[in-house]
From TrEMBL:
SUPFAM superfamilies for this protein: SIS domain
Gene3D superfamilies (alphabetical): Glucose-6-phosphate isomerase like protein, domain 1
CDD domains: SIS_RpiR (cd05013)
Protein name, per record: SIS domain-containing protein
Domain SIS stretches: 30-209
Segments passing through the bilayer: none
Protein source organism: Rhizobium croatiense
C-alpha cells in the first residue's frame, strides 16, 4: 500500500470512528422518525443531486435494504445525462417541485436530503416542498462547507428537522497533493452511505422485533424471489422506480 493510499484509508476510517460518536444522538433521532413512518405505512424518500444522488441509488431495491425507501432519481439533476448541465440545474430555482410532485409524497413521509455543500437551490427547495406536504426532513450535509460558502444564502442545515453533519471540509477532498495546491480523495459518498445504512439497519432491527421488517434479499439467496416479489408488489404503487 502506498503512502497516499494508506492516508486515504486512515483518513476515512478516522472520520467514521469520530462520526460514530458525534452522530450517535442525531442518528438515533433519524431512526426514530423513520421507524414511526414505517409503522404508519409511510415512505422514506432519498434525494440528492450530482454525486449525492448515489445515496438515493444505494437504498433502492438493495439487498439488505428496506423496501419502503423511494429514491428520487431525476436525470437532469444527476450526472449521466450531462455532468456540466446538472451542476447548473441544481443551482437553478424552481426546478425541484415538478421533479418531486411525480412521487406522491404524503404527510407523515420522510425525505432524506443529501447535499455536501448544503447551499444549492435544489436541496433547499426539496426541503421546503417536503415541509409544505407535511413530511419530515433529514439532512446529510457538511455544516463547515455550507458555512464557508453560504454568503447569506439559506443552508440545508438551517431548514432540516434533523441534521446529520458529516464533518467534512469545504471541497470534500481530504488529501493534499504535495507541491500542487490540489486535493484528492473525496469522502462524502463513503461517509453518507455508511451513515444512511447504519440508520436503516437500526430501523430494521426495531421492526424485526415485531416480525415485520420489509428487507430485500440478494437475488441469489434462497427464497429471495418470493420475498422480493411480495415486497415489490406492496411498495410499487408509491415507488415509480420498482
Amino acid at each position: 500500500m502506498t503512502d497516499i493510499t494508506d492516508a486515504y484509508f486512515s483518513n476515512l476510517i478516522g472520520r467514521l470512528e469520530t462520526l460514530k460518536q458525534v452522530l450517535a444522538e442525531p442518528m438515533a433521532q433519524a431512526a426514530s422518525v423513520i421507524l414511526d413512518a414505517a409503522r404508519g405505512d409511510k415512505r422514506v424518500y432519498v434525494f440528492g443531486t450530482g454525486h449525492s444522488h448515489m445515496l438515493a441509488e444505494e437504498v433502492h431495491y438493495r439487498a439488505g435494504g428496506l423496501a419502503f425507501t423511494v429514491p428520487v432519481l431525476v436525470g437532469s439533476a444527476m450526472l449521466h445525462e450531462g455532468a456540466v448541465i446538472s451542476s447548473v440545474y441544481e443551482r437553478t430555482q424552481g426546478l425541484v417541485r415538478p421533479m418531486l410532485e411525480r412521487y406522491g409524497m404524503q404527510p407523515g413521509d420522510v425525505i432524506i436530503i443529501a447535499s455536501n455543500s448544503g447551499v444549492n437551490a435544489a436541496p433547499i427547495e426539496a426541503a421546503d416542498y417536503a415541509h409544505e406536504i407535511g413530511a419530515r426532513v433529514i439532512a446529510i450535509t457538511s455544516i463547515a462547507y455550507s458555512a464557508a460558502i453560504a454568503n447569506g444564502r439559506r443552508r440545508l442545515a438551517e431548514v432540516a428537522d434533523i441534521v446529520l453533519d458529516n464533518g467534512l471540509p469545504p471541497g470534500d477532498a481530504v488529501l493534499d497533493l504535495a507541491g500542487t495546491g490540489l486535493r484528492v480523495g473525496p469522502v462524502s459518498t463513503a461517509v453518507g452511505v455508511t451513515v444512511i445504512n447504519a440508520i436503516f439497519a437500526e430501523v430494521a432491527s426495531e421492526l424485526a422485533k415485531s416480525g415485520d421488517a420489509p428487507v430485500y434479499l440478494s437475488a441469489n439467496m434462497p427464497g429471495a424471489a418470493e420475498i422480493n416479489q411480495k415486497l415489490v408488489k406492496k411498495y410499487r404503487p408509491r415507488n415509480p422506480h420498482l
